[in-house]
Specification:
Elements: H1 2-15, H2 22-61, E1 64-65, E2 75-76, H3 80-87, H4 89-120, H5 127-135, H6 142-152, H7 159-167, H8 181-209, H9 213-221, H10 227-234, H11 239-254, H12 258-263, H13 275-284, H14 289-321
Antiparallel strand pairs: 1-2
Helix pairs in contact: 2-14, 3-14, 4-8, 4-11, 5-8, 6-8, 8-11, 11-14, 13-14
Transmembrane segments: 35-56, 99-121, 133-153, 190-211, 294-313
Main location: membrane
Protein name: Sugar ABC transporter permease
């Protein structure tokens, strides 16, 4: 009996590994650490080269006077570029146009995307086809879409004027869409909204699918059907989705560039000139990198403020609903 007990103890001692000391665990961690660094190093290099370095470099450049064609080194001038920007009538016009575009773009994209998402959320035939069709514009290159819209809106041979005048007989509605400041900005807004609604609709659909079916069934049993269910159950349940879609839409609204650059080149006059286009012209036409960086930072700060404001408004509303 004593022999059997001692044999069992010996077997347990052999099978149970001794706990590693602090030095052993540290050595193992040190051996694995370089391997992990190799895996994450490409991501860090990408972020540093294409995000952090340009951000810091342009921030310093915004505090200097530097024409990269004629000047050898940047000349530090402090905040003079920022003060000059707010006294520059062309920059203020571009900023005003950007806000006009952004307000209409934001409202159209958010309302239209939510409405389409609510329709596609219903169980109807060919639902998958409709969802794919509404998403198609997001995969079309924006520059190509702008060229197509440019052809559609041509005053002499454009498809829109042909349809209004020759097909419908509404000749009084035909006009040079891109030669008038109001209709030119409206055309750019329509193109941008068309290109973005599909993606935001998918985000809203993802939020709708996250609503518990039990919640919807309980609401219907309590008499909340139709519009009542939408306004009192469905829409309040999309609080987190509002924050996500609102943030995405604000950023894309204020960084508009391709559409006015391709369709109107900022014209007629400066009626469709936006901030990103003004930054591009200042940097690569007038070669004033310091002033262009300052304008870019002003727009970036405005976007940051609006995004943070959208986040806190969403959180405050979520707290009230809770």
């Amino acid at each position: 009996m004593v022999t059997t007990t001692s044999s069992i103890r010996t077997a347990k001692a052999v099978q149970t590994p001794e706990p590693e000391g602090p030095s052993g665990g540290a050595r193992r961690g040190k051996r694995k650490f370089p391997v992990g660094v190799l895996f994450i190093l490409p991501a860090f290099l990408f972020i540093f080269v294409f995000m952090l370095y340009p951000l810091v470099s342009s921030g310093y450049m915004s505090l200097t006077e530097y024409n990269f064609v004629y000047d050898d080194t940047p000349k530090f001038i402090g905040l003079d570029n920022y003060f000059a920007a707010f006294q520059d009538t062309q920059f203020m016009t571009a900023l005003s146009n950007t806000f006009v575009f952004g307000i209409f773009y934001f409202v159209i994209v958010m309302v239209a995307s939510l409405a389409i998402a609510l329709l596609l959320f219903q169980k109807v035939r060919f639902n998958s086809f409709y969802r794919s069709a509404i998403f198609v514009p997001i995969v079309v290159p924006l520059s190509l879409a702008a060229l197509v819209f440019l052809w559609i809106l041509q005053p002499n041979y454009g498809l829109l004027n042909y349809f209004l005048g020759d097909v419908l007989g509404l000749h009084f509605l035909t006009q040079p869409w891109l030669s008038n400041g109001t209709t030119a900005m409206g055309s750019i807004i329509v193109l941008s909204a068309w290109a973005s609604i599909g993606f935001v609709t998918i985000l809203f659909l993802a939020g709708l699918q996250g609503i518990s079916p039990d919640t919807l069934e309980a609401a219907e049993m309590d008499g909340a059907r139709g519009l009542k269910k939408i306004f009192f159950i469905v829409l309040p349940s999309l609080r987190e989705t509002y924050i996500l879609t609102g943030t995405w839409t604000i950023i894309h609204a204020l960084k508009v560039f391709v559409e006015p650059m391709v369709m109107t080149d900022g014209g007629p006059g400066t009626s469709t000139l936006v901030v990103y286009q003004q930054v591009y012209l200042t940097a690569f036409t007038y070669f004033d990198m310091g002033y262009a960086s300052a304008m870019g930072y002003i727009l970036g700060l405005i976007i940051l403020i609006l995004v943070v404001l959208n986040f806190f408004i969403g959180r405050i509303r979520a707290g009230k609903d809770a």
